Amino acid sequence: MAEDLWYWKYKLTARQPVNAKSQRREFVGALVRIDEGFGCLHPWPELGDPSLEKCLEDLAGPRRWSLVRRTVRSAKEDADARFIGDPLLEEIDVPKSHATLPWQDDRILESAVSKGFDRIKMKVGRDRAAEQRYLIEAAAKFPNLRWRLDANETFEPAEAESFLLGLPEEFRWKIDFVEDPCPYAESTWSALKSRCGVPLAVDREAAPVSSAAQVMVVKPASDEPWLLAEAAVSMGQQVIVTSSMEHPLGQCAAAWEAAKLNVQFPGLVGVCGLQTHHLFTPCPFSERLGRWSPEFQSPGGTGLGFDDLLERLPWKKLS
Amino acid sequence: MAEDLWYWKYKLTARQPVNAKSQRREFVGALVRIDEGFGCLHPWPELGDPSLEKCLEDLAGPRRWSLVRRTVRSAKEDADARFIGDPLLEEIDVPKSHATLPWQDDRILESAVSKGFDRIKMKVGRDRAAEQRYLIEAAAKFPNLRWRLDANETFEPAEAESFLLGLPEEFRWKIDFVEDPCPYAESTWSALKSRCGVPLAVDREAAPVSSAAQVMVVKPASDEPWLLAEAAVSMGQQVIVTSSMEHPLGQCAAAWEAAKLNVQFPGLVGVCGLQTHHLFTPCPFSERLGRWSPEFQSPGGTGLGFDDLLERLPWKKLS
């Protein structure tokens, strides 16, 4: 039976650049409708994904890309839940989230603390001396915070070491993990973690074979969560589930996967990264996810939610 | 105007020994009623406190002991809140709590994980090799947990070092802090934390001058929280507020102090230790604090709560 395939392109506008590898502020992705189910397709070409056009072509055709296959999988699960009227994100514990600091700003950090966040994720690698100063001051001001530093592989191994050793030992104890400090290699990562005394987190492709990492970042937008979680268990790694800075529907899909893993593997999933909507200018969808908070708020509706908003979108037929 | 002073002795029965320094299972303390306010007085003689009898004498007399003065202070705040009908523990964010593992037991640890605890506090120093084995296995099974090891000063400095270095580096990164590894001394603590790469937490007397610690444990039962918190701020330390393994009314007094500090010093207070009632056999008071959970549950009522239960106690006049 042929599928009924539709798409709607959306644009997210970041309040500030969101990535060490890109100064872009506007990001385009698509919501897709596959029969009665909805999914989000949000490629990040600067991080190695194919373009949105290529993804949509692939969706209509062979479905070779894991990003596309994951969207299809998510839309099918959404369709099943909508059919039986089940709101996926209600009556299930979605793990809490860290606060993503879009840039070094005292006011935003204070706001995060007042909203109850105790883990802060910050991108590093753009202005290293300023970042070090900021981290030291922020940790002195708010001693209860733990830090997640995401370098998006912008460091060389020696640079990562000098950046981390440039932070006082007592700050390094507050580092939850350093994500992708440099391209993954067993030997460089093992040396880096021991010399600096900080856990490392691996994101993207290398994940299933990354035994030198202590934390595995699972992005349901492109990863199969169950398989990665099983690999993490076998390597004694903690799992962090993050959304992919995509549309709120995609955030809900990530939150659902995080909640499932949390049930399936008790004690495996740490504080996640599911609250990224505040990085972008608000839209009717993001307003349903509520105010910035460590707790994920269900958008209401059936399946992944947003029933009424999704019905009203000007869907285009994908052929 | 003379105060109206009453007391009622209670007995708590531990499910297992609760302290590395004591094999005792039954613990006696007193609730006190000062005019219209209630407080808890729970000395731990094995940790250096005067006996309950001496405390009650002191309460009726000079009020020299800080334990006694804190009880009086708490009862006065309770009286004020009851007078205006204010339930102190409602509509205020009480910090979350760690799970106190009374002894090494897989079933209890699994239960803690399933209830959402992500920090585990365990007493160490009784059977060191068994404790090390247990910690390593538990961390492999539940990689998202962070650990708080409380030694109650049972180690010599060299023993503490060998105990900690006997744990793999990757486990040590999961140590939130080691509490009172050995008697506090600036030089031994500084050496210990650097050699082992773990934060140290200081409890009891030494707190205001303990700059070699990274975490300050504030026990409102005997400490003045505001003064210690100010000292912690000046030393860049995180503050953890803990109850004193006392009567549920005392737990509520500690929870109230934790909530106040959290408002007064944003970002200072970490996950606390306020959920100790499950260590003891249940009583009508502890049942009001609900099931074991990281979230503190208000017992209901005005002031520190328990209005109806407190009214029905067979108070004795203290003279």
UniProtKB/TrEMBL annotation, chains A, B:
Matching SMART domains: MR_MLE (SM00922)
Listed Pfam families: MR_MLE_C, OSBS_N
Annotated InterPro entries: Enolase-like_C_sf, Enolase-like_N, Enolase_C-like, Mandelate_racemase_C, OSBS_N
Domain Mandelate racemase/muconate lactonizing enzyme C-terminal: 105-199
EC number: 4.2.1.113
Keyword annotations: Lyase, Magnesium, Metal-binding
GO molecular function: metal ion binding; O-succinylbenzoate synthase activity
Species this protein is from: Haloferula luteola
Protein name, as recorded: O-succinylbenzoate synthase
